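Support reply, case 0932

Customer input (verbatim):
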Amino acid sequence: MSWNTLDDMEIAGKRVLVRVDINVPVEDGVVTDDTRIRRLKPTMDDIISRGGKPVLLAHFGRPKGRHVPEMSLRPLVPALESGLGVPVSFCADCRGDATKAAVGAMADGSVLLLENTRFQPGEEKNDPALAEDFAELGDVYCNDAFSAAHRAHASTEGIARLLPSCAGRLMEAELTALEAALGTPERPVAAVVGGAKVSTKLDLLGNLVEKVDHLIIGGGMANTFLAAQGLNVGKSLCEHDMTATARDIMEKAETAGCRILLPVDAVVAREFKAGAENRTVPADQCPDDAMILDAGPETVKQVEAVLDTARTLIWNGPMGAFEITPFDAATNAAARSAAKRTRAGQLISVAGGGDTVAALNQAGVAQDFTYISTAGGAFLEWMEGKTLPGVAALQH
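Our regenerated output:
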């Protein structure tokens, strides 16, 4: 797959409409985590250094096409100025004459932030008239919001059809990493898929068994696969109505030559709380009154053996109830093993999803992975093999 990047664009003297994701946490009008803002800096620096004027299009929250004052982007201006290191002005609308005037008044070396695109009823409907209004504000369109690329909205897809369009540096890095992981990966390829439910990751599992050599299943969804094999999982989180589906996935994997690795031992407890009394048992010996809360040490050894031979790793979801000790042990051990091989240049590791990022941060290894995606839904849909409208619109 190939898409245009900033390198393909003539920027000097141009107004560059940049779709960004600055859906950041705010408390009492103050940004509490500016990670998403700081990740935009390479794109802004590139555009400004080449004589372009960045005009930011962004959404915030779910105002559903209405003007909701508490979802205004205005409070983000100080955090943007701090994170980007340039003056940022604000326009209280994102279309119309006042907005055109604000764009026309931009000083060189500055950034203009337009008001929440989702205040417009046509944004989420991909209204062609709104896309045209956006397009009148710029000469070039740059999408740097991979996390919104799975939505066909006016500011992510409609506008890309109307202007010379490209991916920003953050979007480019994300697409390059994902292409390396699933498009043309170095083999063997391993995937760790965890989380609570099989039902939320059916498309993901179905796609991965045809793309990877090893599929490591952990978390609550592993219990459903164990139950599908006739094992007793006691009071564990388990979707008993999905066992036939789990068997279908295992058959599909066997046909495709993908080895599925399930827990061979498990850490069980009778209550779900930090420091709960627990013990390790073989996977087929969970007591009726207990629940599986983590993979056991023998399973971790098997996971590490897979990672020792893998050249590419995709990770989505924890292997156990990582939020509470001691049920974070398997996730931490596997994450540290992957990080060690990545640091040694032996593994390309790409991870994404909210719980995944939290788990890798908790294990202290997030910075060691090749790429960590903060995109959530877009990351998952890419891994499911779906076409992302915001990406498709940028292709050559």
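We compared this against your earlier run and they match. Two observations from our side: The first strand starts at residue 15 and ends at 19. The chain has two domains: 6-169, 185-383. Please reopen the case if you see a mismatch on your end.
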